[in-house]
Amino acid sequence: MTSGNLLTDNPELYEARFPDAERLAARWTEDCLRRHGAGPRVLDLGCGTGRDAAALHAAGRTVTGADLSEAMLAHARTHHPGPRYVHADLHGFDLGRDAFDAIVCLDSSLLYCHTNDQLDGFLASCRDALAPGGLLVAEMRNGAYFLGRTDLLDRPAVDEFTWQGTAYRSTTSLSVDRTAQLLRRTRVWATDDGSPPVTQHSAWRLLFPHELRRFLAAHGFEVLELHDGPGPRTERRWQEGESPGRTTDGDRLHLVARRPHTH
Fold first, then answer.
1. CB neighbour list of residue 34: distance below 8 Å, 6 or more residues apart
2. Any residues with CB less than 8 A from the CB of 37 and at least 6 apart, and which?
3. Which Pfam families does the record match to this protein (predicted)?
4. Is 193 exposed, middle or buried (0-12, 13-18, 19+ CB in 10 A)?
5. Rounded distance, CA 224 to CA 248, Å?
6. Do 232 and 139 touch, CB atoms closer than 8 A?
């Protein structure tokens, strides 16, 4: 059978598959916010289960978590209280003009903007939502990594874990759709409880560093940082106190951009 997204529909399963007891992504984000003097009002766009939003709240921020999945939002309100959680589509949203001092978009959420129009909608919404001087902090896959590299495409990745007594096995295959400029993912789930396999499909936009800079400039953003790590999802994980990198060659991109104080 085919499902839209087994993990999105089952937030507790998502957290079991991707444990983050150290809240590394939130700590990296807080470090970015502090280094660039961001104010307290933060929008976590694509907040998922709410773990990072709650960690930023615990760090003293006033946090709004936004997601398209009602299942994720319900889980976040129950299990990661503190932030305000709202339903929003990152392709275009209106949560108040100049309402936030920073917008955070982690774990490749920005790359669900598959088309130029969707990316324009996202950036226009971010600019309207940010106060002058506000920051956009994002972490995502790097399209440039796939220029001449096939290590992530050559063979499926297999992961296994157990949740609530059931063994789960996921087989994930990636392919590049060059015409659409998308990295397409097919993931097949199998369990040991006799359920039929579940196949799900998703895709990320493959953005290149200079392309991303051009989109940001077109919407009036000033790029403060754009580099390949270290970060929360790089092979050598970011550690407290590390400075941002200077290259954009690795498989992740880390972005900090500012809405200028002048309109």
1. none
2. none
3. Methyltransf_25 (PF13649)
4. exposed
5. 14
6. yes
The CATH number given to whatever domain includes residue 188 is 3.30.1300.30
Name the amino acid, one letter, at 227: H
- Domain with 168, as residue range(s), is 146-204
Structure tokens at 175: 């392919």
For 206, phi then psi, to 5°, come to: -90, 100
Instruction: Write the pLDDT tens digit of every residue in 127-146.
Output: 999 999 999 999 999 999 99
pLDDT digits (tens, 9 = 90+) for 175-207: 999 999 999 999 999 999 888 999 999 999 999
The CA angle 128-257-174, to the nearest 5 degrees, is 100
| One-character DSSP codes across 132-177 | EEEEEEEEEE-GGGGSS--TTTSS-EEEEEEETTEEEEEEEEEEEE
Is the pLDDT at 2 greater than 50, yes or no? Answer: no
> Hey, what are 47's tokens?
């907040």
Query: Is 1 inside a domain boundary?
Result: no
- d(CA 136, CA 256) in angstroms, rounded, equals 6
C-alpha–C-alpha distance, residues 53 and 263, integer Å: 29
Neighbours of 218 (CB within 10 A): 12
